[in-house]
Amino acid sequence: MDESISVGEITFTAFDFETTGLSPADDAICEIGAVKFRGGEVNDTFQTLANPGMKVSADARAVSGLTNQQLATAPPVEEVLPDFLEFIADTVLVAHNAEFDMGFLRAAIQVYNLTPIRNLIVDTQALAEKAFPRKRSYSLQALADQLGVDPGAAHRALDDALTCMKVFNACVDQLSFMGDLPLSEVLR
Known about the structure:
By secondary structure, the protein is α/β, with parallel strands linked by helices. The chain has a single domain (7-187), classed as Nucleotidyltransferase, domain 5 (2-Layer Sandwich). The protein contains eight helices and five strands; from the N terminus they run E-E-E-H-H-H-E-H-E-H-H-H-H. The protein has helices at residues 58-64, 68-72, 77-88, 98-111, 124-131, 140-147, 157-175, 184-187; strands spanning 12-19, 29-38, 41-49, 92-95, 121-123. A hairpin with a 2-residue loop joins strand 2 and strand 3 (41-49). The protein is globular and about 50 Å long. It starts with 11 loop residues before the first strand and ends with a helix. The mean pLDDT is 94.
């Protein structure tokens, strides 16, 4: 993709995973939320619970509120992951602390022998540090609070994806005060 193209001309997908724990090597995705958008307008959303095939750690349950009982009847990760990959195709991905979610995505792609993705990725945590230097915290929830963004149900995948989109848009607005913002400015 030409990195000189204006951000307003690109379709992005903000996404978030809830997981059974913190390690992509030992834990799994249990909820996927994503919002496809362009120029600040939502085009489509994707949300599903996923049976991870393992128990959710007590710490992860405390964060997301997802229970093993809720996930037991959800479709397996290997069934929902191809739909998610189709949803994000041909878009630039946006995630907060992107390496966390990308670690889980790469691990799941490898486990289920799926084609690796080649999407460009924007990390809103790094982007917010550039757009809004000297904030107290760059966690998604802290940024939402500091920027006046409604976080919805924090630590649920679709609401976190929507919050991520709003934080991305606030960063783009902040950085584009001199006109169109090229993609290259949000990738670094």
